[in-house]
Specification:
The complex is a heterodimer of chains A (112) and B (112).
Chain A: E1 4-7, E2 10-13, E3 19-25, E4 31-37, E5 43-51, E6 54-57, E7 64-66, E8 76-78, E9 87-94, E10 101-103, E11 107-111
Parallel strand pairs in A: 2-11
Antiparallel strand pairs in A: 1-3, 3-8, 4-5, 4-9, 5-6, 7-8, 9-10, 9-11
Chain B: E1 4-5, E2 11-14, E3 19-25, E4 32-38, E5 45-50, E6 54-58, E7 61-66, E8 71-76, E9 85-92, E10 100-102, E11 106-111
Parallel strand pairs in B: 2-11
Antiparallel strand pairs in B: 1-3, 3-8, 4-5, 4-9, 6-7, 7-8, 9-10, 9-11
Classes of the chains: A mainly beta (112), B mainly beta (112).
Chain lengths: 112, 112
């Protein structure tokens, strides 16, 4: 089955820890995205990548890092510099050009 | 001015009525426009994608795009209680990097 897989579904982080959220797609999509959603809020763009080995900061990139070493994978690291990381994180992908974008199931990150 | 603007709602409509959801965007060069439905705690689900001026119909849903007015809307005919969700408008900005930006979403409540 083609799709976008995010793991884990739930993640708990201790204060001062870095954690990495996984996003894998087998749709042969070029562009991939990471969003953060806080309760009752819309989606805010963290990072996005149009091609392998290239990515751009979104609107709230501080405290986050990404890599795009393979077309299928776009992991997000939430660093200790992100002071309020508790949120719902969503990964999306789309082909290039004027095409649809689809989401994974999300990862809910909680700081304990 | 926000790049994508939506009324937060809630928009309350009776079962069987037409629900009308509106979205404006600031980037005149934008070419791709999306409507997603998001149930509480779940990831967004694509319901409409439009890129040409005019109307696009899919079942009970109609998306309307007016690029001159920088306006995209979603009509839901014969609204059902199961349509109660948050509806997110999204736009791919011009500039060549496939930057996909979301509005804050409109909460729709369909009451029996």
């Amino acid at each position: 089955d083609g799709g976008i897989t995010q793991s884990p579904k739930y993640l708990f982080r201790k204060e001062g820890q870095n954690v990495t959220l996984s996003c894998e797609q087998n749709l042969n999509h070029d562009a991939m995205y990471w969003y953060r959603q806080d309760p009752g809020q819309g989606l805010r763009l963290i990072y996005y990548s149009q091609i392998v080995n290239d990515f751009q900061k979104g609107d709230i990139a501080e405290g986050y890092s990404v890599s795009r070493e393979k077309k299928e994978s776009f992991p997000l690291t939430v660093t200790s510099a992100q002071k309020n990381p508790t949120a719902f994180y969503l990964c999306a992908s789309k082909r290039g050009g004027v095409t649809e974008a689809f989401f994974g199931q999300g990862t809910r990150l909680t700081v304990v | 001015q926000k790049e994508v603007e939506q009324n937060s709602g809630p928009l309350s409509v009776p079962e069987g009525a037409i629900a009308s959801l509106n979205c404006t965007y600031s980037d005149r060069g934008s070419q791709s426009f999306f409507w997603y439905r998001q149930y509480s705690g779940k990831s967004p689900e694509l319901i409409m994608f439009i890129y040409s001026n005019g109307d696009k119909e899919d079942g009970r849903f109609t998306a309307q795009l007016n690029k001159a007015s920088q306006y995209v809307s979603l009509l839901i005919r014969d609204s059902q209680p199961s349509d109660s969700a948050t509806y997110l408008c999204a736009v791919v900005l011009s500039g060549g990097y496939n930057k996909l930006i979301f509005g804050a979403g409109t909460r729709l409540a369909v009451h029996p």
